[in-house]
Amino acid sequence: LLAWIRRWMPWLSNRTTDNTLAGVQKKLDEFRGYRRKEKPPRIEQKGRLETSFNTLQTKLRLSNRPAFLPTEGHLVK
User: Rounded to whole angstroms, how far apart are CA atoms 23 and 1?
Assistant: First the structure.
């Protein structure tokens, strides 16, 4: 998931176009493809990760153990 995020962040941050209608439409079509094909499986994967993290935290709390703190850059958010 982290590798996927790192791969797509530069693409999502690049908002430049050639200032033509065709260029803007192409950019919009690329974004629609991203939202339809790339993002949904990752949202599902993030949901499973959040569930696993919360389950782990609950089990640790019930066992009177300290909470798990992920390293910086590996937080669920």
Answer: 30
Strand blocks (E) in the chain: none
Domains of the chain: 2-62 (1.20.58.60)
Tokens 């696993």 — which residue? 52
Alpha-carbon distance of 52 to 70, in angstroms, equals: 13
Q: Is 66 helix (H, G, I), strand (E, B) or coil?
A: coil
Q: What is the pLDDT along the chain (77 residues), one digit of tens a residue?
A: 888 888 889 998 988 888 899 989 999 999 999 999 989 998 899 899 999 999 999 999 999 999 888 888 777 77
Q: Are 68 and 55 in contact (CB under 8 A)?
A: no
Q: Collapse the DSSP code of 1 into the 3-class scheme (helix H, G, I; strand E, B; otherwise coil) and give the result.
A: coil
Phi and psi at residue 7, in whole multiples of 5°?
A: -70, -40
